[in-house]
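Hey, can you fold this one?
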Amino acid sequence: MAGSPASMTPPAATLQEMLDSFSLQQLACTYCHAVDRRDYRLLRSLYHDDAIDDHGPVFCGGPDAYVAWLPSMLARWSATTHLIHNSLFLFDGDRADGQLSATAYHRTLDGRQEIIAHGRYLDRYERRGGVWRFFRRSLVLDWAEARGAPQGGDAATAEDGIALGRASAEDPVYQRLPLFAAQRTP
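Sure. Predicted structure:
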């Protein structure tokens, strides 16, 4: 609530705070989807024009520069999966702060290794024109691991009849879910 200091004490949440929390969770999940499916148009729409994304020493800048930089970084991976585990939001009217616990899986192009990053997004959000978007986004790495990727054996393949995910507009989500397909620009 505007005028009340933000608190992490268990609140008697208002309906508006619950709706706002849901909106910010959707924003975070949409970010993960956009990165993993390489939907850069969608990704750009999640940021205010004057936003900053801070991924540490590898990138810090505005949303247009971030979206221009990301394809070269993601080109190193055959697949990525970004997951949000816990989210904690504090509201002050049309501004909010959020801490999102996240895990990001990255599989190398040759499919032999996985890099798993465990960290948090520390986000500042603003609601403008009734819409929440990222205003400041920073990544904190808590720890990371590298491991060999499973080879053969139990791994699902196209021969098993299971649709394989793609880091592109060719992903089955766009073939099987028309509402998702309608949102993707070719």
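The chain has one domain: 15-179. Let me know if you want another pass with a different chain boundary.
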